[in-house]
Recover the amino acids of this structure.
């Protein structure tokens, strides 16, 4: 919202930095992330799964593009003239209009967290995710291929359920991602 609809100084520079950060993949960022996690003392905790996805650059990019195209300036100006502050405008006007993109970002975040394999940051067996355990099972060779296929089918159920619940909003926001009003 701040990058799309306010007159904040340096907002274009900040958005260029967000776009630039989309160029880096997880392997490129592995060592800096490990150093940051080590400094924060969150290695072998659930925070390793949660924190990287809270400030998703893809989420910032999608939200800014959606708000720029689908949150009318005239509506925000009318609310401001009526005496609404930034927080009231955001929570009572912008959030309801942005429900489709919020659900899209939540879906992408869920998919990322569900499929994440934090290599080098989780060592306790009880904190390992199902995909991480699957890589260990499939490393057992052809003798474990039946078990691997059964677990793969079970692993597909939660993402499919989340997608089915939010499907109509995701389709709406993705079909309008490049169109400006």
């Amino acid at each position: 919202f701040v990058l799309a609809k306010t007159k904040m100084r340096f907002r274009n520079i900040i958005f260029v930095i967000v776009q630039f950060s989309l160029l880096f993949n997880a392997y490129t960022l592995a060592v800096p992330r490990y150093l940051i996690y080590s400094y924060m003392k969150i290695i072998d905790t659930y925070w390793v799964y949660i924190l990287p996805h809270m400030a998703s650059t893809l989420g910032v990019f999608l939200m800014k593009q959606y708000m720029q195209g689908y949150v009318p300036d005239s509506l925000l100006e009318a609310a401001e003239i009526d005496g609404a502050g930034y927080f009231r405008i955001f929570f009572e006007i912008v959030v309801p209009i942005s429900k489709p993109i919020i659900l899209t970002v939540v879906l992408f975040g869920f998919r990322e967290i569900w499929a994440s394999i934090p290599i080098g940051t989780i060592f306790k067996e009880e904190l390992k995710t199902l995909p991480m355990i699957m890589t260990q099972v499939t490393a057992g060779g052809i003798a474990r291929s039946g078990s691997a296929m059964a677990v793969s089918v079970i692993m597909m159920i939660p993402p499919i359920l989340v997608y089915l619940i939010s499907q109509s909003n995701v389709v709406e926001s993705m079909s309008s991602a490049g169109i400006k009003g």
Notes: Residues 177-181 have pLDDT under 50 and may be disordered.
